[in-house]
């Protein structure tokens, strides 16, 4: 009797410990799951449907599989910038949790031209441009995501060989009325601005990509909401489980007006030199500080809150900009480069004496000019700027030769040794 009681007590104790362990495990799982969910939701502008992420995560656990998360891009311009990084860093979070990132290169759709946000047709790219730009993109992606673990696919693999009969069937799944719900199409239609047929086809082809790769989630900026939603529709028509859509906010460029875009010369590129990154960050308007702090840095939530509090209590915005600039450089270069960039900035721009400034030396023979217009020379020195952008700089009084301001783009001068040329706020050149 006694032995039996002890045995039963031991069994009870064992079962009790087991139950407690299971409960603790369940608690920790739920706690970690909640923390992961909150982390994944941070900074997201749009979930479609609203509770879609929770449902997809539950489905993945139930089916014991990775979620397939799609990010598509048309390799139109080969340079990634902080605006792209907003979405890429969210992708990295999913990747770190063990899910499958699918990078879809629009090798076919880039030859059409994405009309999103445009008031006229976008110029399509040729095959060689697409290939070159795609390679550059993928190399730059490695600054944020693990490219080796990502699945990289090209939509030309299936769109190039799609029979025309299937194209017609695909187009039959979408009505013109649905396409006209897209803001840019609707705007152009009401303004009698031409809309070419290939532009209407573009979002349908992008949506078909989601069907092909069996996407669980599609990510993009808020400007891609319509295209991503179209993916949900085609998946449902195809009898598949519809992807959810996660849209990240669009980071405004250094001008503080438009979204970051290379065509607007308002970007901070992921491959920019540390000094360039620092200078560009310091040039952003003060009212963009919270936006950059939130979207461009990798500070913790508590650190962001503390810096926001300091701003609200009257901290000099320049000091906060320096902190943000150093954080950005640390992400894409190193702490050492960030410290050096700050020192360079202090010497170059905060000490108003030209003797302390570092001028980039340019050999006159490399310009292959004896004399020329100010516009031509400045464009050669600032080749990353378009001629029209350089012209605007000159006309606004942002160009100096040997300390003298010139506002005529056609002003001709001889290129002689020791000539100092200042272009904008951050670029100093000396001819030798």
Q: How are the SSEs placed, and which strands pair?
A:
Elements: H1 2-41, E1 46-48, H2 52-63, E2 68-73, H3 82-96, E3 100-105, H4 127-141, E4 151-154, H5 156-159, H6 164-171, H7 176-179, H8 183-190, H9 197-213, E5 217-221, H10 225-237, E6 244-248, H11 274-282, H12 289-295, H13 301-312, H14 317-332, H15 335-350, E7 360-362, H16 364-367, E8 371-373, H17 374-381, H18 387-395, E9 399-401, E10 404-405, E11 412-414, E12 420-423, E13 427-431
Parallel strand pairs: 2-3, 2-5, 3-4, 5-6, 7-13
Antiparallel strand pairs: 1-6, 8-11, 9-10, 9-12, 12-13
Q: Can you walk through the features of this model?
A:
With 432 residues, the protein is α/β, with parallel strands linked by helices. The protein has 3 domains: 39-248, HUPs (Rossmann fold, 3-Layer(aba) Sandwich); 272-356, Tyrosyl-Transfer RNA Synthetase, CATH 1.10.240.10; 360-431, RNA-binding S4 domain (Structural Genomics Hypothetical 15.5 Kd Protein In mrcA-pckA Intergenic Region, Chain A), CATH 3.10.290.10. The chain has 18 helices and 13 strands. The strands form 3 sheets. Strands 1-6-5-2-3-4 form a 6-stranded mixed sheet, sandwiched between helices. β5 (217-221), α10 and β6 (244-248) form a beta-alpha-beta unit. α11 (274-282) runs antiparallel to α14 (317-332) and α14 (317-332) crosses α15. The longest helix is centred in the N-terminal third of the chain and has 40 residues, at 2-41. The N and C termini lie far apart (104 Å). Residues 1-10 and 24-31 have low confidence and may be disordered.
């Amino acid at each position: 009797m006694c032995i039996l009681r002890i045995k039963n007590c031991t069994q009870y104790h064992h079962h009790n410990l087991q139950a407690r362990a299971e409960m603790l495990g369940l608690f920790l799982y739920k706690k970690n799951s909640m923390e992961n969910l909150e982390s994944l939701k941070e900074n997201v502008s749009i979930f479609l449907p609203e509770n879609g992420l929770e449902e997809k995560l539950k489905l993945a656990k139930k089916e014991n599989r990775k979620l397939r998360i799609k990010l598509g891009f048309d390799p139109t311009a080969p340079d990634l910038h902080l605006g792209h990084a907003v979405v890429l860093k969210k992708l990295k979070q999913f990747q770190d949790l063990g899910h499958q990132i699918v990078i879809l290169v629009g090798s076919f759709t880039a030859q059409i031209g994405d009309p999103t946000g445009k008031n006229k047709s976008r110029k399509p790219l040729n095959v060689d441009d697409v290939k070159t730009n795609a390679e550059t993109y993928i190399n730059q992606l490695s600054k944020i995501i693990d490219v080796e673990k990502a699945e990289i696919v090209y939509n030309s693999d299936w769109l190039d060989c799609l029979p025309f009969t299937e194209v017609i069937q695909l187009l039959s799944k979408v009505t013109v009325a649905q396409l006209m719900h897209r803001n840019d199409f609707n705007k152009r239609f009401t303004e009698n601005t031409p809309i070419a047929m290939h532009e209407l086809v573009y979002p349908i082809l992008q949506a078909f990509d989601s069907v092909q790769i069996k996407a669980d989630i599609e990510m993009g900026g808020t400007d891609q909401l319509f295209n991503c939603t179209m993916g949900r529709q085609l998946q449902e028509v195809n009898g598949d489980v519809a992807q959810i859509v996660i849209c990240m906010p669009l980071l405004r460029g250094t001008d503080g007006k438009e979204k970051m875009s290379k065509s607007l010369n308002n970007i901070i590129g992921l491959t920019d030199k540390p000094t360039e990154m620092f200078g560009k960050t310091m040039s952003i308007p003060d009212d963009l500080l919270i936006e950059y702090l939130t979207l461009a840095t990798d500070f913790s939530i508590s650190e962001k809150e503390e810096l926001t509090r300091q701003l609200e209590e009257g901290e000099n915005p320049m000091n906060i900009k320096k902190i943000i600039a150093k954080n950005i450089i640390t992400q894409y270069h190193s702490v050492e480069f960030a410290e050096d960039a700050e020192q360079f900035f202090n010497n170059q721009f905060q000490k108003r004496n030209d003797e302390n400034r570092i001028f980039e030396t340019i050999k006159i023979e490399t310009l292959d000019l004896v004399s020329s217009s100010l516009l031509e020379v400045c464009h050669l020195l600032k080749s990353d700027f378009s001629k029209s952008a350089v012209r605007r700089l000159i006309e606004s009084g942002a160009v100096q030769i040997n300390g003298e301001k010139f506002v005529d783009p056609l002003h001709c001068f001889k290129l002689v040794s020791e000539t100092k040329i200042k272009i904008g706020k951050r670029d100093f050149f000396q001819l030798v």
